[in-house]
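Internal QA ticket QA-208
Title: Verify multi-chain structure generation after dependency bump
Assignee: T.L.

Test input:
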Amino acid sequence: MGEAPTGPVLEVKDLRTHLFTSRGVGRAVDGVSFALRRGETLGLVGESGSGKSLTCLSLLRLNPQPASRIVGGAVLYEGTDLLAKTDEEMRRYRGKRIALVLQDPMTALNPVFTVGNQIFEAIRLHQGARGSRLRKIAAEMMRLLRIPDPEQRLGDYPHQFSGGMRQRAVGAIALSGKPSVLIADEPTTALDVTIQAAYLEVLKEIQRRERLAILFVTHDFAVVARMCDRVAVMYAGKIVETADTWRLFDDPRHPYTVALLRSVPDVEARIERLYAIEGQPPSVFEPAKGCAFAARCPHAEARCHDEPPPDVPLEGGRAVRCWLFVR
Amino acid sequence: MTTARAPLIEARNLRKYFRAGVGLPFLAPRAPVRAVDDVSFVIGAGETFGIVGESGCGKSTTAKLLLLLERPTAGTIHFQDFDIAVATKDELRRYRASVQAVFQDPWSSLNPRMRVRRIIAEPILLNEPHRKKEIPGVVADLLRQVGLEETMAGNFPHEFSGGQRQRVAIARALALRPQLIVLDEPVSALDVSIRAQIMNLLKEIQDRFGMSFLLIAHNLATVRYLAHRVAVMYLGQIVEQAEAEELFTRPLHPYTQALIAAARLLRPGEEPPPVLSGDIPSPSAPPPGCRFSTRCPKAFGRCFSEAPAPRELAPGHRAACHLY
Ligand SMILES: Nc1ncnc2c1ncn2[C@@H]1O[C@H](COP(=O)(O)OP(=O)(O)OP(=O)(O)O)[C@@H](O)[C@H]1O
Ligand SMILES: Nc1ncnc2c1ncn2[C@@H]1O[C@H](COP(=O)(O)OP(=O)(O)OP(=O)(O)O)[C@@H](O)[C@H]1O
Ligand SMILES: [Mg+2]
Ligand SMILES: [Mg+2]
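Actual output:
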């Protein structure tokens, strides 16, 4: 409360999370910055392994340890740096102020408790409800997310749910905390398109009502189109382009974004062979000297291979990390 | 234009009912979940058979029945010339080696403590131990076939990216030269570019070896690209089945139509199609009549009382709907 209504609720500055393994140090999250305002959805898309999940986990300091460590940057929630909090203080932010939907529902759910118990726990903790009201709230949440027989299925264990039902249960737990920021790491990958559409409507409704800010990680551009106001594109640990959703779709600037969008197959067309970007991204343990995309980029020039490109601000609040845009 | 394919595997009237768990103490015991409720299909040799449908409609359960990870409550599975239920030990071993699987999650489907060499060789060690000596050569070969380098055989799964791990899973599935590979959401965890690489790879492998695929995927573009024929499931049953192009260009069942409409990429400012409203029916107590009637925008009188039987409405195109 009390902060300027337009100020970001979450601001991430130059976040760096490195991997520490027998193979050496890997710069998995390598200077990520973005701001998230109330009521806004920022999409985070990009290469598999580019550091999206590790970024999400780092925001709540839940990154795997000792495999990884946050080595720099700031995560400002309403202006306070979460990276400077004690573990005890940090616990008061998780779930209640910032909720996280993990990419893998099986690691998010405890196999020895019923799904109902796990949703009850979240509601009890964050909304203080008890007894029959608890069951009502939980069943209503499951109903909203289109789980059949919600009352009955609260008694099921996670393994008795289908893949998509588990994913929705994890969503229900996160939303039960009534957070002001939701970090959703591929929350709808296991859902068919009609259930997904319903899920996104529920999210939007809660967002309108509570001015929820959402960081939405996905590989699905149809979901980005429906859900996101702005999009950040990640490649090899860095955000390489940020723009309003439609500007990004209609006029992508970074060569990686251009190539990524070209790879999207269209249900409305019959295709013989899909376009895919040639080659592989550099290993996190052997970062490229210059731009990480240079080796695969059709426009790469000499300096692209030698020097990392700066983040170039462009018109309309967009930005791109590419030498082509440096005059 | 489509040449008839010799049937490889046939599922007839398959059912899988899961007995309800203990449930919550204050609730009355409930009826079993009818995860798969009278499903029949044929997968031809060299064919990709796609299954799409709502989350929870029974796709993975159908796959698990074919993989013998679950026992059917009723119904039969025929493979080539024998019935699985009464197969001899030898036939069953042949079946297990002939049917392999690749699952959605490249992060958890590979044993993190095994080197890739061992992961890929495992099916051979288990099923054809006499071939032990050939393993190094076979593994190198398989790695090349899926676009990985032979030198990667000594790596652990966590040293690979998501796309590379999925290639390892495919290499393992290929190890016994199976006749059917069950692909349950094989690419949904991958970014679109790596997804395209893997889909192209699957096509190449099929062209080269001629095996069949059972493909389960929520992404309809993936299914349209890879599948020859597609079945649409709703609440434990197949409601429509046709050649892929026919299904995507002339969907007949209102559920299929809703599914395809919801999958379109929106243009700027375009309103998404309305979300299917109405009650989500219970798989423990399916509605009388058509199972889709509670949400169907076109439902009329008899849809609510009489279950529509699947009928062939165009050559090779079957749908279960009273509209036709
Ligand atoms: N526990 C871990 N131990 C070692 N390396 C890890 C661990 N977790 C992640 N990594 C590595 O960190 C990098 C970033 O992984 P991350 O999961 O954030 O990618 P991502 O962008 O979420 O990918 P995807 O789209 O496939 O989910 C990858 O190279 C990955 O292999
Ligand atoms: N072991 C089990 N015990 C009890 N019920 C189960 C079990 N496995 C699946 N079910 C139930 O059977 C139904 C079908 O599940 P299945 O996993 O086949 O769905 P699916 O079509 O693969 O869905 P998704 O697209 O979400 O993966 C669901 O209602 C599910 O909860
Ligand atoms: Mg991830
Ligand atoms: Mg499934």
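Spot checks passed. The pocket of magnesium ion (ligand 4) is lined by residues A 162-163; B 59-60 (CB under 6 Å).
Status: verified.
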